[in-house]
Amino acid sequence: xxxxxxxxxxxxxxxxxxxxxxxxxGTAVAPDLTDHRPPPNLFIAQRDGAGHSDxxxxxxxxxxxxxxxxxxxxxxxxxxxxxxxxxxxxxxTVDMGGDANPIALALPPVVEVRLxxxxxxxxxxxxxxxxxxxxxxxxxxxxxRLCEVVVIRLLRHAIEAGQTRxxxxxxxxxxxxxxxxxxxxxxxxxxxxxxxxxxIAGMSRTHFANSFRDVVGIPPGEYLSxxxxxLAHMEIAKGTPLKVVxxxxxxxxxxxLSRAFSRRYGFTPREGYSRFRLExxxxx
Length: 284
What we know:
By secondary structure, the chain is an alpha+beta fold. The chain contains twelve helices and five strands. It has two domains: 151 residues, Jelly Rolls; 111 residues, Arc Repressor Mutant, subunit A (Orthogonal Bundle), CATH 1.10.10. 47% of the residues lie in helices and 8% in strands. Helix 10 packs across helix 11.
């Protein structure tokens, strides 16, 4: 009997809610100075495709349905290029929870996928394009939600291809390491020891520690601490009392959390509360 695969995304999606706003279809791609929303960072082309060009990437001109996603924002000089005049395409602004999201940070600057080579992703983008480009009753209520599903399926696709470079995606793609990473994501408050995580991964302590460093790029303890501080960052921004935050994310007390927080961010949790509130910008 095949072992059940762990859910590698749910804990991340719970903490970093994916929000998408699909822009009205049209041919204009120049930024609208009167629109105060973040600019589009997801481009989907139905047939000839919306390629892109910027200082670090050559233009994409291959025919076929295509998706291009810039998780940390499309560069200002990026130009969405339409193929044939009747090629269906859409643009969307996707927020993955800000720069604190470890998945967004683990992705490359641009993720490009040929949709005719990714069946599970192509099927939902087809439905999204159908709803967006041929509006019908109730379409507006589902278009943004469909776009969020597209992003989730894109993340699955990225994880499966994550073995090629060290980082979180490679760790989540690893059949053993992902078990320990998911355990940390699901239960950051536990007093995790290296022995505990290596046992969950089904590896010896030494093999686990070395493999984790090689695949993810940092030691397990550093990843655990970073994940806890990322969650603390979010809770402090919400105004959650420091004592509660420390208990929820696995620190022994407020003082220990405050020291670790200050080392990482360069200011105390008390100073951070107002700073995070000022930096919070809604998607729409």
